[in-house]
Amino acid sequence: MTVQFFDIPVTADDGHGWNLAAAVPAQPKAALLWLPAMGVAAKHYRPLAEALAAHGIAVFLHEMRGNGSSNLRASRNTDWGYRQILVLDLPASQAAMQRHCDIPARSIGGHSIGGHSIGGQLATCYLAMKPEDFSRLWLVASGTPYWHTFPAPMRHLLPLLYQFAPWLAEQRGALPGRKLGFGGEEARTLMRDWARVGLSGRYAASGLDIDLESAMAKVEVQAQAILLDRDRFAPTRSTQALLEKLPRSQSSLTTLDSAALGASADHFAWMKRPAVVAQALLQTESQSVT
Predict the structure, then answer these.
(1) If 0-12 CB within 10 Å is exposed, 13-18 middle and 19+ buried, where does residue 96 land?
(2) CA distances in angstroms from 33 to 90, 102, 136, 145, 169, listed in the order given
(3) Which among 190, 198, 269 has a CA at the least distance from the CA of 228?
(4) For residue 106, how many C-alpha atoms fall within 13 Å in the half-sphere facing its CB?
(5) Residue 195 · residue 166 · CB < 8 Å
(6) Which of 220, 221, 240, 257 is 20 to 30 A from 106 via CA?
(7) 8 A C-beta contact, residue 74 and residue 66
(8) What's the CA gap between 61 and 49, in Å, rounded?
(9) Contact 213, 241 (CB under 8 A)
(10) pLDDT (tens digit, 0 to 9) for every residue of the chain, 290 residues total?
(11) Are 66 and 184 spatial neighbours (Cβ–Cβ below 8 Å)?
């Protein structure tokens, strides 16, 4: 199948600019807006986009603020949190996707949203804000960061991390994630929003007057989660807990091990060899797209 790869320049209302990377087959049957993990540039998901596009899915890779093609970098003078991503950035990427793919959102195939790790969490939050715009939610190695959903010893360590990371980000102007081996250079408010969810188990965004938890409970889509059995950052209960926030949706969870993947079944290794992950996602797609 012929696939066209191109970048779409996108600018949010506050001036934040980035490139939306697209992989569009000649005759797409569905479209996907994909959100990266914390600190991961969108370009690293091109193998996943290629694998899905080969099966007729037009894939649009959103770039998170502060990463890759984004014209912003977190610092003491430049800050953002979940609100800017949900209210400014994702609507701009969604609009660009719609301009370059004429598939109606709720048609057969339609539009899906999904992501990896925190990208999957924010995709779920955005879906709650735009429930009529997507028919599917795809999650890979993604679950709530709520400390209680993790096994020991992570269960005991995470509350400390959720207090330390925002404090350090505030002291330094941004979290030095590259030095810590966790994420990238992460904005202060982003760290506070993330840590708040990790401590409370409830999604909210600083400055956003929307009850995300209530909105999630009303969403009716097909939700498919891929779990990796050696993933300490998104264990089984964490992923299940995120899906449980969508009680009106039809949810399914597929667990992949290293033998199935041909790579370590951890949080990141699948990205270099995503064919099996793509196929697992497409199994759900094939049930409703003919």
Answers:
(1) buried
(2) 9, 14, 10, 22, 29
(3) 269
(4) 6
(5) yes
(6) 240
(7) yes
(8) 8
(9) no
(10) 789 999 999 999 999 999 999 999 998 999 999 999 999 999 999 999 999 999 999 999 999 999 999 999 999 999 999 999 999 999 999 999 999 988 876 666 789 999 999 999 999 999 999 999 999 999 999 999 999 999 999 999 999 999 999 999 999 999 999 988 888 999 999 999 999 999 999 999 999 999 999 999 999 999 999 999 999 999 999 999 999 999 999 999 999 999 999 999 999 999 999 999 999 999 865 444 33
(11) yes
Strand, coil or helix: what is 140?
Answer: strand
Cβ atoms of 252 and 284 closer than 8 Å:
yes
- Per-residue CA distances from 269 to 17, 24, 132, 256 (Å): 29, 25, 33, 12
Q: What tokens were used for 31? A: 């479209």
